[in-house]
Amino acid sequence: MTGASPGSPAVPTGRGRDSLRDGGTGGRILQALRTSGPATRADLSRILGISRTRVGQVIGELARMNLVTDAPAPHGQEARLGRPGSAVRLRTGLGFVVGVNITHAHVRCLATDLAHVVVAAADEPLVDPLDIDQAIEVVARVVRRVIDKAAAVQGECLGVGLALPAPIDPETLRAAPSSCHQLWVDAPVRELLQARIGLPVYVGNHGNLAVLAERLWGDGHRVDDFIWIGLDTNVGGGICSGGQLLRGRDGFAGELGHIVVDPRGEICRCGNQGCLETVASLDSMQRALRPVYGEVEPSRIFELIGRAEPAALRAITNLGTHVGVAVSTLINILNPSLFIVGGLLSRQCGPVILDAIRTEMNRRALPAARRSVRLQFSALRRPEPLGAAALVLMDTSRHLVIDEAGRPHWT
Ligand SMILES: [Zn+2]
């Protein structure tokens, strides 16, 4: 490509600017690159239903306007294409997005540029805030720090995505009752944060956002049908079916933690009995080990498993067995090609947990459906804030335009 280098003046042409208008090929290519990340011309042709010749012409125009630049071939496509460097990406400096994750004890925040590269990050503890205003002030402070870090090089912030450990009501965009701190439940989090930072805010739940992160940055990039399960202080989940996040009628699909695995088991916080979450969370692991070791912190649990202490191995095997029951049910219903296990209790527990899940899966899932399922840990360390950033990247309401002075900005 002969595109201008990052930072050099944009060179708008009448034809190029027309192409950026609503429905124009240039605008559609920019939107596809923002949503999907760096892509080859062949991919863009397929995604947009436009001939490769036309895609090539318009990319040439966008390069002359200094909006796109060369990129390495997307992950996993180098061998297939055999032509490294044949992809394009939105250039550095066109903007960035912010993703925030709220956990029971932390606010974790990151920024990615429009080519999906993480460019800034910041964390802050969030322990027992007095009220929602105090909690939002902590969130706003971390977000401002990340924006300050990213803005000097990346330009304009397009918006902020917020991941909450709760189902989100699609009408109100507020958290429904769940294991998250009560102060988040039914609170106008989006409006409060927007008022403080003056940017659009998007809200999603952990499990669904982890699916978006796996789709853009993880192993979900290569498959259209996969399920993510997060084993943490609670059990989260999300489902990608046919390349789309499965939301369900009311946005509550993917609540894998409340699949019943033991009809006579413990009462769950949801009011049901024997949900997966009662036997497959960090809390349940701590309860299981209490008779032997007393109160144990997560780090001690991982240490005990690492030392192959019999009680710890039994507890994690029991946990994996229960997860395997739920996984088998999901395989029989949804026929995925990949099961991704994430969360604090996953990789740090080592292969013993995957072995237990796989053993139960092989016992219970239909042979035809389980034959092609891969079961693996997530390769992403922090999928939730990445997924929150993806929520903003996938927003379609903002468009890049070139003003009369030739400067690109977002409407
Ligand atoms: Zn439940």
TrEMBL record:
**Molecular functions per Gene Ontology:** kinase activity
Q: Which Pfam families match?
A: ROK (PF00480)
Alphabetized, the UniProt keywords read: Kinase, Transferase
Q: Does the keyword 4Fe-4S apply?
A: no
Q: Tell me the Gene3D superfamilies matching this sequence.
A: 3.30.420.40, Winged helix-like DNA-binding domain superfamily/Winged helix DNA-binding domain (1.10.10.10)
The segment annotated Disordered runs over: 1-27
Q: Which InterPro entries match?
A: ATPase_NBD, ROK, WH-like_DNA-bd_sf, WH_DNA-bd_sf
Which family does the UniProt entry place this protein in? Belongs to the ROK (NagC/XylR) family.
The entry's protein name is Putative NBD/HSP70 family sugar kinase
Question: Which species expresses this protein natively?
Answer: Microlunatus parietis
